Amino acid sequence: MKLDLDNLIPANPQPSRADALKNRALILETARQLFEERGVEAVTMTDIAEAAGVGKGTLYRHFENKMAVSEALLDDEQRQHQAETFERIRTQTDAAATLRWFVGATLDYVDRNAVLLCVGTQPTGSLQHPAHWWWRQTVRGLLEQMRPPGDLDVLADAIYILMDVHNVYFLRQVRGYSLARARDEILRIVDAVG
Fold first, then answer.
1. Whether the Cβ atoms of residue 31 and residue 73 lie closer than 8 Å to each other
2. Phi, psi (5° rounding) for residue 178?
């Protein structure tokens, strides 16, 4: 199964005017700062508009709700992670090492962005989100190259679930494990597959 590396995250279909791009960037930077200071749940769309110094109409032209703001904040980092992943897949010959790197980098991304990733999701919502589904596809493709024994689909799903924000949140916030401890043990599981 060959991964379609070029079409997993679509490009922005409509270029924007310079002032609209500037307003969008200002809104996102303001939202990120407010979310970090107060927490996502405590910040309203009105708070974002007022702190950014833009009208509510401007805010809502860019983002229909707080979930849309959260998704936009995650987008750039997700695109960078995807580009780096695909470059490694294209240039590396050791699928097991690439899988290990990918799972570790994804866990770091999830931990950094846990609050934003949970906005508006149900217990399995982030697993079914199209922006994250490429993680599962990447794991499945690397497992196919590695050819471990067992059902590759079930193995891919199990590894994918280990990277889910709800799992990472449980390990970090409920169980109290450090990121290093949780990451090391998840990677030990991934290593055992290869």
1. yes
2. -70, 160
Nearest to 40 by CA among 119, 125, 129, 108: 119
Distance CA 100, CA 190 (A): 7
Burial of 117 (0-12, 13-18, 19+ CB in 10 A): buried
Given a cut of 70, whether residue 170 has pLDDT beyond it is yes
Alpha carbon 28 to chain centroid, angstroms: 17
DSSP codes joined into one string, 135-148 = HHHHHHHHHHHH--
Specify the pTM.
0.75
Say if CB 115 and CB 35 are below 8 A apart.
yes
Nearest to 123 by CA among 178, 179, 167: 167
Q: Is the pLDDT of residue 14 over 70?
A: no
